[in-house]
Write a structure and sequence with these properties.
The chain is an alpha+beta fold. The protein has a domain of 175 residues. It is built from 8 helices and 6 strands, in the order H-E-H-E-E-H-E-H-H-E-E-H-H-H. Strands 1, 2, 3, 4, 5 and 6 form a 6-stranded mixed sheet that branches. Strand 2 and strand 3 form a beta hairpin. Helix 1 crosses helix 5, helix 2 runs antiparallel to helix 3 and helix 4 runs antiparallel to helix 5. It is elongated, with a radius of gyration of 45 Å.
Length: 294
């Protein structure tokens, strides 16, 4: 037992030191990121439009027809992974155009379904590799519906946020006869939130500068899917012998129902018979008197 504890103690110390090192590294990385987002210094002169220090955000949007949607999407995903990009969204779907059923056999149908394969992708690639990724897609296209490339300069927005955060700090607000402690705290909180929002906005600009957004829409010509299915009318249709048995049974049930109805109406039938009897008897008397008078 002592032997195992002697070996476990150095491992525990090593794990603690590693976790502490990771935590310090994460905190240092966060501090560096925030410092960069607030920096107003640039390594090059930004008066030139082509200066590397400018914060340029690049985007691309392409819609095209390809011969095979699945192969194109797979190739793009492979290319993006090769340039250390990420696939923010990848969606493939078949849009149904029409469905038609035609006779195939006595008990089956051939179902023909026309559909259009469509895929949409949102890719984040390093800005330096955007042109090569776009060229990879357009080289596989058989028809390009549109291709849009944008290069938006966010340098002034970035400088505005940084200079506002690096400006002279206003003196601390102290409660006065006209302001209380709650109002002073609310002012400090609002100021902190505003500065934090500027830092986050600059971080978003830096992220968009380093990674371009590439929106892809690809489709291919209509395709037909054929399958043999069961004819529901044939399967659900009753056999000839069963139809005869059901017809005989229905006739017997109808006769039985009529007989029961007659039994239920026997008082009315009795009154009808008596009326007919007396009417016939009176008619015979009238006819006999007429004959005697003649």
């Amino acid at each position: 037992m002592r032997f195992s504890l002697c070996y476990m103690a150095p491992m525990a110390l090593l794990a603690i030191s590693c976790s502490a090192g990771t935590s310090s590294y994460s905190e240092a990385a966060d501090t560096t990121t925030i410092a960069v987002a607030d920096s107003t210094t640039f390594s090059n002169d930004i008066t030139s439009l082509n200066s590397p220090s400018r914060k340029r955000v690049r985007t691309a949007d392409v819609r095209c027809r390809v011969s095979n949607v699945f192969n194109t999407v797979s190739a793009l995903e492979h290319v993006v992974a090769g340039v250390d990009g990420i696939i923010a969204e990848s969606n493939m779907q078949n849009y149904e155009v029409t469905v038609k059923d035609v006779p195939y056999a006595t008990d089956s149908l051939r179902r023909i379904q026309l559909y259009t394969p469509v895929a949409t992708m949102t890719l984040r690639v390093p800005a330096a590799h955007l042109d090569s990724v776009v060229h990879t897609l357009t080289s596989m296209a058989t028809f390009i519906e549109f291709r849009t490339l944008k290069d938006e300069d966010k340098t002034l927005s970035y400088l505005s946020n940084s200079m506002k955060n690096d400006g002279p700090k206003s003196p601390a607000v102290k409660p006065t006869p006209f302001t209380n402690t709650v109002e002073a705290d609310a002012y400090r909180d609002e100021k902190h939130v505003t500065e934090t929002d500027r830092k986050i906005a600059n971080m978003a600009i830096l992220d968009d500068v380093h990674y371009a957004t590439f929106t892809v829409q690809v489709f291919q010509p209509q395709m037909a899917d054929q399958q043999v299915i069961v004819n529901p009318e044939r399967i659900t249709r009753t056999g000839f012998g069963t139809q005869i048995r059901m017809a005989l049974r229905t006739g017997l049930e109808s006769i039985g129902a009529l007989f029961i109805l007659l039994i239920a109406c026997w008082p009315y039938l009795l009154l009808l018979a008596l009326g007919f009897y007396f009417y016939h008897k009176g008619l015979r008397k009238v006819l006999r008197k007429k004959l005697t008078t003649l």
